[in-house]
Amino acid sequence: MSFIQVIEFESTHEEDVQRLMDEWRDTTGNERTATHTTLTRDHTRPGHYVAIVQFPSYEEAVRNSKLPKTDEMSRRMQELCDSPPRFVDLDVIRDEDL
């Protein structure tokens, strides 16, 4: 069963967030267990973002979280946020293309 983590946050530093995400992607290479990520910006609330990160399983998400580069990214990301990010952990129970 795949697993999705949703990270909701407020920031006035979109370009810095994008650069940080690129850096994490480029430095984690074969170590990371995330398989897909989507960053969204709320159309009606400027500065409100939602990141959606997909993993093969909850266990792989935990393993990814324990990577030193992920820990570093998390600390740096919190500095770019205007308030603490909100995390939602979701087990995928249905997934279909429409």
| Mean of residue pLDDT values | 96
> In one word, what is the shape?
globular
Poorly predicted ranges: none
> What percentage of the residues does DSSP assign to strands (E)?
25-35%
Radius of gyration: 14 Å
Give structural notes.
This protein has 98 residues and is an alpha+beta fold. A four-stranded antiparallel beta sheet has the order 2-3-1-4. The chain starts with a strand and ends in a 7-residue tail after the last strand.
Strand and helix layout:
Elements: E1 3-10, H1 14-28, E2 36-41, E3 48-55, H2 58-65, H3 68-80, E4 86-91
List the main descriptive attributes of the protein structure presented here.
98 residues, alpha+beta, Alpha-Beta Plaits, four-stranded antiparallel sheet, 4 strands
Summarize the structure.
With 98 residues, the chain is an alpha+beta fold. Helices cover 37% and strands 29% of the residues.
